[in-house]
Amino acid sequence: MRTNVLLNTVDILGTQIPVDYRKSLRARRLSITMDTDLTLRVTLPNRYSERMVQKFIQEKRHWIFRSYHSLRRRREKSFEIKFEDGSPILFLGEWYTLRIEVDSDLRARVELLDNEMLVKASGNSFVKSVLKRFYRAKAREVISDVVACYANKLNLSYKRISIRDQKTRWGSCSSAGNLNFSYRLVMMPLKVIDYVVVHELCHLKEMNHSKRFWVLVSKVLPDYKERKKWLVDNSCGLKIF
């Protein structure tokens, strides 16, 4: 179980970067990741002092600097959904043109018509919420099928699948065997959804990112590195609603 220690900033070669320090009872060593919200996540075991943590961060300062600015550049290129008629919108890796039909007598729903996504709502202010419900429902449908497929291939069992409004993680796996996924995952191509699902399923057996973990992933997805790269290169723009 993780608990927040503090939320602060650190100066990395002249750049102020937000840092989220977290203690983990399961962590055996210090680890850092640069999250898509441009926050440096530092996971540390209880035995590490603040001085040791700051020393570790400074040792990794060049990696942190490169990762932060690379991610920042990708975020600046990300698209924006304006929830207006004619705007582009992504679903299962395919671009659609958003079409909006507003009428107080309409039953709120979303329809896929060739290369258009038609949103029917009783008012413009409801378009975003109608789309969100559509994505959540489709995410549960698609992800549940993918989880069942790969759990069978890996001979793994799980307890519950939850579709959440997660903005900093595409998926997560609890020690109790529950799987959690962001509904935004359904914006991605199926091969990337497969990767995220397999990644979390493999954590049911290996609750880490050790060599054994990646060997397990590669057994069912030999090209997982390509899928992971797509996720890293394109994920920023997919967390905007």
Can you describe this structure?
By secondary structure, the chain is an alpha/beta fold. It folds into two domains: 2-76, no CATH class; 88-238, Zincin-like, CATH 3.30.2010.10. It has six helices and eleven strands. The strands form three sheets. A four-stranded mixed β-sheet has the order 1-2-4-3, with helices on one face. Strand 7 (109-113) and strand 8 (116-121) form a beta hairpin. Helix 3 (127-154) crosses helix 4, helix 4 (190-202) crosses helix 5 and helix 4 packs across helix 6. The two termini are 28 Å apart. 21% of the residues are buried. Residues 1-7 have low confidence and may be disordered.
Number of helices: 6
Number of domains: 2
Shape: globular
The secondary-structure class comes to alpha/beta
| Largest sheet strand order | 1-2-4-3
| Low-pLDDT stretches | 1-7
What's the architecture of the largest domain, going by CATH? 2-Layer Sandwich
CATH class of the largest domain: Alpha Beta
The named CATH superfamily of the largest domain:
Metalloproteases ("zincins"), catalytic domain
Order of secondary-structure elements: EEEEHHEEEEHEEEHHH
Strand percentage lies at 25-35%
Percent helix, as a range, is 25-40%
Indicate the radius of gyration in whole angstroms: 20 Å
